[in-house]
Amino acid sequence: xxxxxxxxxxxxxxxxxxxxxxxxxxxxxxxxxxxxxxxxxxxxxxxxxxxxxxxxxxxxxxxxxxxxxxxxxxxxxxxxxxxxxxxxxxxxxxxxxxxxxxxxxxxxxxxxxxxxxxxxxxxxxxxxxxxxxxxxxxxxxxxxxxxxxxxxxxxxxxxxxxxxxxxxxxxxxxxxxxxxxxxxxxxxxxxxxxxxxxxxxxxxxxxxxxxxxxxxxxxxxxxxxxxxxxxxxxxxxxxxxxxxxxxxxxxxxxxxxxxxxxxxxxxxxxxxxxxxxxxxxxxxxxxxxxxxxxxxxxxxxxxxxxxxxxxxxxxxxxxxxxxxxxxx
Amino acid sequence: xxxxxxxxxxxxxxxxxxxxxxxxxxxxxxxxxxxxxxxxxxxxxxxxxxxxxxxxxxxxxxxxxxxxxxxxxxxxxxxxxxxxxxxxxxxxxxxxxxxxxxxxxxxxxxxxxxxxxxxxxxxxxxxxxxxxxxxxxxxxxxxxxxxxxxxxxxxxxxxxxxxxxxxxxxxxxxxxxxxxxxxxxxxxxxxxxxxxxxxxxxxxxxxxxxxxxxxxxxxxxxxxxxxxxxxxxxxxxxxxxxxxxxxxxxxxxxxxxxxxxxxxxxxxxxxxxxxxxxxxxxxxxxxxxxxxxxxxxxxxxxxxxxxxxxxxxxxxxxxxxxxxxxxxxxxxxxxxxxxxxxxxxxxxxxxxxxxxxxxxxxxxxxxxxxxxxxxxxxxxxxxxxx
Lengths: 328, 386
Prior knowledge:
Number of domains of chain A: 2
Oligomer: heterodimer
Structural class of chain A: mainly alpha
CATH superfamily of the largest domain in chain A: MetI-like
Radius of gyration of chain B: 28 Å
Mean pLDDT of chain B: 88
Shape of chain B: globular
């Protein structure tokens, strides 16, 4: 605006002066009005658009992934697939994975994944819960102030380093007691996973135990219960929903872990594990091992494996939201 | 009464034992990483190349260079300084305009002269001079100055993690550049604009499921879509796009939580003063939520540093600087590998636990530092604000 008026004044002609006058009176006043109302509305609309676009990008991209994975993964089970058809029942219950023979059974992997997760939960949860009880109820304040950050740091260690630890320390230790010549086994996987999920579960449990109101404890103690009885009969039941949430999150982490597991699983080609010393091949490991070179039907089958994993995750989340709804 | 005491005592012992076990595991893992990795850590560990290599490179001098003070062995012709020890002559100075920075190998790829390389031979006007610990410094300098066209044989010692650190940093920057704006803006929409109801709940449930999907599934998706179908190839770009999708749900969720902790009264007060919605968001809500958003971003950085399954096939596993060989510049279209992926590859391919642990030390330092920073931020601001 200033530039324009300077330029017009320099030219110094009558028409220009008239135009300038008209400009000042009409246009500027209109613009002033607009700056108060319309510009605000425009800005408002513009930013609303920007935020909405970002949300749509996020939603659409994640929706596309799900659609892509499911369409790839379900193709082999519907007629008209370019690489031939595969029976979904024999896929889900098959006990052998031999891509070169066209055999794609992931039943034994599902069993492996579930056993490894169950073992990790059975071993990890009690220790994690007792650690949380220690931090929230038993430990002197100063000691808890040191140990709690330590547990949180443990949760921050990348899973690969747990895998390296398992490869160098846990698997050789398992080999010493194993009837087989290798330490890679279901037991090694369970140990690595239970160590890995321990800090996450312990942190969440500590928070939820701390959230139990103090008068619950006072009431219980006043009734003559001991401190330990109060913790296990009053405090932990009241913190139940938080503890269950922690366990469900632990299950999700254990079932989805890949890199820590791949180093100690042994990666078998078939067969349900007969003992805790058997080598196994969880679902995630199957994808990681073969995605680099898989093509055709084999690649589709890796997506089918991913579909099974996603369904497990959806079930876990449904359970979680049920728990949270119950807790209110 | 007595039996209760005994029972309580036993349970108490279990509680202490469990806590001791948890702490013991942390100490065991950290001790394991440090005791295995420390022998490989030297002063050059951070800055040295990963792989040892020997390069024969050519350069053409177009000017003379001034000898920096304190630099005893120096070629005015090339602008390269050396220092001598029991192993021979090491490059310890390269002038910013030195032709050595644009040196090419026989395949016409740019292979620059770098500090820390060992000089093994010089070919100038007087033929080839083999250089070892017994060669006199005068002969070396004379050979380096003998002609404008010089060919050097340089030995790169390797054993460092510089390429891994550069790749990790580039990956973090590229991923956050895309994921952070989209994630934060989407969260603002979800909290401040969208009407609560079925749509928002569905989106929220979807993001929760996506946050729980194993990263190997994202890796499979990224490899097929970005690397193969879109022909981006294994590169930082493909890795960053994969991580962006992996991080978006978490990013949206942490930002949403941060925005929700801003009390409604702040917004009402802002509206009461006549501010409109966008002013309220940018001047009141966002500044109050910044600490929470920052903590979310730091957690995302920690996740990128620790991620491996999603990067294995999208970023690649080669420990190299992501440099375009024909231009000599860093490029997002080049493959590389991060610290964490390399730690896995070392163990999986060659059982090299020592190298994995040495890389692990760097990872632990980064992750623990991020953890402490995010703690400090949330502690400081939660006191200041409410």
